[in-house]
Every structure is written in C-alpha cells, then in structure tokens.
Amino acid sequence: MPADSNPRQIHFDANAILRFLLYDIPPQADAVEARIAQARAGNLIIHVHPLVFAEVVFVLESYYALPRSKIVEELTKFLNTTGLRFSEDVRIRDALLRYRDKNVSFVDAFMASVSAETSRPLFSFDRGLDKFKDIRRVEK
After folding, report:
1. Separation CA 59–CA 93 (nearest Å)
2. Span(s) in the chain for CATH 3.40.50.1010
C-alpha cells in the first residue's frame, strides 16, 4: 500500500514506549509495534515530546533498574526509528550522551545540553552540573 501524501499524526505517551521497549505486556507491545509499522510505511507520523522521553528514562532507571548504558543503547535505537518525530531531537541525543557519561539525571543532562547549545548560563544549585565543562552554572 503506498504511503499517504498527508499521513495521520499522533503523540506517544511514555507507557507506549515502555511497552514497546520492554515487551512486558504483549498485547500492548503489539499495538505499539503496529503503529510503528504504520509510521515506517509512511502512513503515520508519531510525535514524542522531550518530557515523555524523560519519563521513559526515569522509569527504565528507577523502576526497571536498567543500567545507563543499556537505556542509552535502547533509546538511541528508538530515536532512529523511521516515522517518529522527536521535539528537540538534537538536544535529546546530546542529553543521552551526557546522561550516559556523567552521574546526573536525564533532565539535568538535557538542561546542560540546552545551556551548552544556547551559550546561556544555567541557574542551579546542583553542583553535579559542574561536571559539564561546556556550560556555566550560576547560583546568583
């Protein structure tokens, strides 16, 4: 079936991504895979917001206790899925590397990415952000 010239668009929530990555509830994982197959065929565009992405990272780390390296590996593959659109894709990718390489939360890594990209200081009392030499953290 040829791809639509104007494909439908939907948003994914964190639970959809988690079901797909973990395949822990097969009927739900299959439903997500069906949507991803539509996206790969060009019949659907799936949008993923950075907050949803952050929630996925948090759940994989805190609830499922996956190591950072595995989280980054799986989410990088997910980011490369045809038909998926990520708001702030470049920042998410940079944040994943920062998250993998430093002992900071994904949200802190994302904010470090924003600060580095914009060359604006990051106002925070979290001294862990000083691990990133390409940003300037300020407290006053």
Report:
1. 18
2. 1-87
1-87 is classed in which CATH architecture?
Answer: 3-Layer(aba) Sandwich (3.40)
Residues 6+ apart with CB under 8 A from 140: none
With tokens 């595995």, the residue in question is: 70
Count helices and strands (H / E) in the chain: 6, 5
Contact between 115 and 122 (Cβ < 8 Å):
yes
pLDDT at 7: 74
Give the number of other CB atoms < 10 A from CB of residue 19: 19
Encoded tokens for 135 = 């940003």
Dihedral, CA atoms, 125, 51, 18, 45, nearest 10 degrees?
Answer: -150
- Per-residue pLDDT of 31-54, as tens digits, reads 999 999 999 999 999 999 999 999
4 forms beta bridges with none
For the record, the structure tokens of 18 come out as 């988690």
Q: What is the DSSP letter of 12?
A: -
Confidence (pTM):
0.89
Using CA atoms of 51, 88, 108, 122 in order, give the dihedral in degrees to the nearest 10: -120
Taking CA atoms, 43 is separated from 21, 68, 101, in Å, by: 22, 33, 37
